[in-house]
What does this fold into?
Amino acid sequence: MNDYFKETPNVDGQFGEYGGSFIPPDLQIEMNKITDAYYAISKSHEFISELRSIRKHYQGRPTPIYYAKTLSEECGGRIYLKREDLNHTGAHKLNHCMGEALLAKYLGKKKLIAETGAGQHGVALATAAAYFGLECEIHMGEVDIVKEHPNVVRMKILGAEVIPVSHGLKTLKEAVDSAFEAYLKDPITAIYCIGSVVGPHPFPMMVRDFQRVVGVESKEQFYEMTGEMPDNVVACVGGGSNAMGIFSAFLDDPDISLYGVEPMGRGEQTGDNAATISFGKPGIIHGFKCYLLQDEQGEPSPVYSIASGLDYPGVGPEHSMLFDQKRVHYKTATDQECLDAFFALSRKEGIIPALESAHAVSYALELAREKPRQSILVNLSGRGDKDIDFVVDNYGYGDD
It folds into this structure.
């Protein structure tokens, strides 16, 4: 497995036919500096020691694995949750944000720039900026600013400048566009800290590597709890950082089934979902090649999901490769299935999940019914504090 991470991606940032870097020459120069710096310091004792200290004493890692006893008894199967919702700031995003910010300090950068959909990446990066004494600029679609108001407040309290994005669908894809434009204006003093395993090389690799801590912990913890490995591992997939984080530890074991759960939203019609691998085809977006929801001209199609962190027309290039290789199975969950899982986990286990994570929980419940004798490990990638106002205002308390 170590050979896999040394060889994947290749030196050009390719995951099979996906990934790479399709950006302007001036920006490529800056991206090469980031790549060189990452390779230079990521394996150094000083960098690793500081990152491990941050994870233990600041983030509160390792996060635990929890056996969802009530849900398991009701649905069958044995459902376990990797509690990334207990990571500081409430999601897995801080795992790579602290690493990216530490890299930015090494490069002498003064400002962190990023996009956010659900706001979890924005909050995590604003937290990292505060920790390291850096400026922070977060681009967020106006639709998501309304949906995820609690996270907008958190970003501002942490000192970040939140830039509203008012063009297009005013959601995640447009936020990425806006953040890239801001970075292009000042690539010398700023760094664009991409929020998932997407974008030009080295970000799909770098974010995956920082998120591997989730998989490493999970493998050790699950074996300690049960004396065996899980039969199935499930995670939601938008860009796919939380999924790559937990999948990374199990890729070399063909007996463990891996499931990425995409948002089916309101249905299969174009613009009603963001199920990229289910309905997309290879294309280029934001400087990299991946499966992409696109029109006949190759332009990204409109997308939708109840979960702001999943409504992106592309997906990580490593996910694209793993789909082609049939190593990971990609499934879907609708808005309604997501909401049902959101309330089920809240009522049965006392855990309010992020809407993004509820997609994974939804499929795990389905899988438990299909395979009642098997174990299922779910990456509960975030907590639902950010979503409760939106859910209650639009869907009530789940009593209907």
Remarks:
- Residues 213 and 245 are 7 Å apart (CA to CA).
- The first strand starts at residue 14 and ends at 15.
